[in-house]
Amino acid sequence: MRNILSRNFINIPGWKTDRKIVVIQSDDWGSIRTAESTFNDLLEEGYPLDQCVYNSKDALETNSDLEYLMEVLSSVKDMNGNPAIFTINNIVANPDFDKIKEADFRKYFYEPFVQTLERLPNRDNVMKLYHEGIEEKLFKPQFHGREHVHTHHWIKALQEGNVKLLKIFNRGMFTYYKGEGSNCKNEYLDAMATYNEKQFGAIEDKIKSGLDLFEDIWGFRSKTLIAPCYIWGRNIEIFFHKYGVRLIQSGRCQKEPVYNQDNYNIIRRYIGQNNSHGQVYSIRNVQFEPASNPGINWVDKALIEISTAFIWKKPAVISTHRVNFIGSINPKNRSRNLILLKELLQKIINKWPEVEFISSDHLADLILEK
Fold first, then answer.
1. For the chain, which domains are there?
2. Is there a contact between 288 and 344 (Cβ–Cβ < 8 Å)?
3. Considering only CA atoms, which of 6, 78, 17, 3 is closest in space to residue 312?
4. What pTM does this model have?
5. Backbone angles phi, psi at 19, to 5 degrees
6. pLDDT digit string (tens) for 46-78?
């Protein structure tokens, strides 16, 4: 009963449309995660990577990951003849481990993710495939952050000589699951969180340089943004606006850090909600995260959530992270979840022949037209 009420409640307020719109938002593309070459070694050394879906299945995307995903997305067409399209929420840079080490951990350096791709095996065609996907309306990149690491907290921990962190640093990783009590903050993943005035003072440059790098890589500005871990303060939204972001992608709630504390303000969001800068929010009202729990019937669950969104005249905004479609560590993860994705897409077009697949920036245009 609680799930039914929640599913309906989040869809009641906000922007409405008579169109059957499906938006698929997928986070983390471009970011490094587990170094697949050392996964088993780290397990033997006591890192509980197998207990976390992101540590045991996620990695920087490979040629094969994109090829197989493109094949599935192109297998369906909506009422306008367009294939299913992923909003590729892109982390545009990763830590430059060599430069950070050369500086004796006194300063943070980053490299564009395209350089990371060049250094690692089986990724020489990734950018070519991305551009093909954009041309074929399978992919539309949008901004997820300059990096997926909280640079202040991470560098401080390295300076303090955190042994386990230094070990994975030497393997080209910045985060790992720590077991019970692990969270985005203590895994250094909350890249846009500002917990004090000093961090707030540095965030504008991260947002500006990240969005500028996004434009350098893709050839266009990002109109939308999703903060890592859904953690950001309302006071940094002015910088999103200043550098061109018009729609803020969100989960059902925003987690806003409370300065100098470990708490968060939990702020409920709804689609089409405005902030003081004239920006709008979208929320994710459908979950398709099969890697997180293979025991759930994710296709049926997503179809129910899509149906609820349409009943309330809302677009169905699907959350599905990159981890679901990565096979370099666990090939069965990718193959199983692509089968489920294909089944979901086919059932969507069968049940709603009038469906339209659009990207998040297109959704922003529709909402802002009102």
1. 2-368 (3.20.20.370)
2. yes
3. 17
4. 0.98
5. -80, 150
6. 999 999 999 999 999 999 999 999 999 999 999
